[in-house]
Amino acid sequence: MISFTKWTTVEVVLQIPPAFPVCTYNLTPIEQLQPRVDYKEYFTDVLGVVSVISHVSSLRTRGRQAEVMKRTVTISNARDTGPTVDVVLWGERATAFPAEQVHRDSGSSPQIIIFVGTLVRSYADNVSLSGGSSCKWYINAPVPEVNALRASAEPNHCPVIWDQGKVAAESTIAAVPEHKKLKDIKYLHPFENKKKEWLVIVKVLKIDRSWWYNACKKCLRTTKPHGDTYKCTNNSCDSIGSPTPRGTRYASPLKTTLTPLSLSSLDGWRSASLKKCGHPHID
């Protein structure tokens, strides 16, 4: 992963040096993934023998209107009692993964993959890797780490299997909240419907002020551009420096998932919205 700053310069190199590496990675052992859960400063790269592949499934996760493609690839460190981890590929990465080829080639030899550009996630105390658009893979790459893992995996090699059960299980987990109108759920008993969720869409007709603004770190008043930095608009403050992004005191979501327990503060939200936005149309 490369981090760019305002001081970064980029130079085009037309003649690629002969020793330029084809594969770039910084491997983290599977058993050391837990401390990196939700760590986003750098991506995580892992190496493993493929044991299970799921077919591509189409899911609609919470908060998304469009469906997203998903595939799970399970890898291990080749030891019988060693840990395994699921690499969950999303979107184009799920469909681009050569699952059929990996499954076919596993009939004769272990399929060893280096996944780069993943993020470590945790769901129900199970650590997994999430592979989005930044994720890439090297299959049976001619590098020392792959050769060493292959040597340890060959004595107990088993072909890759298709996991038919993951699709059904994942579809159940990622249930989509039902669309409802506010009037349909406002008076429901909160404890009788404690675990239910609905998707409610509201239409805001007018916004008098921005929902987010660049706030002065000293007095939290609005700042305005001042050269290559920002200056507070409060005459008694006149602080100059980097601002802090800050939300307004009125919440005005266009789309939100509601539960009956969240409706206890709904009247306050509607009141605040009316003060801020005039008279919103509620679908």
TrEMBL record:
Lineage per the UniProt record: Eukaryota, Viridiplantae, Streptophyta, Embryophyta, Tracheophyta
GO molecular function: DNA binding
Organism for this UniProt entry: Zea mays (Maize)
Keywords: DNA-binding
Stated name of the protein: Replication protein A DNA-binding subunit B
Gene: RPA1B_34
Residues annotated as domain Replication protein A OB: 40-136
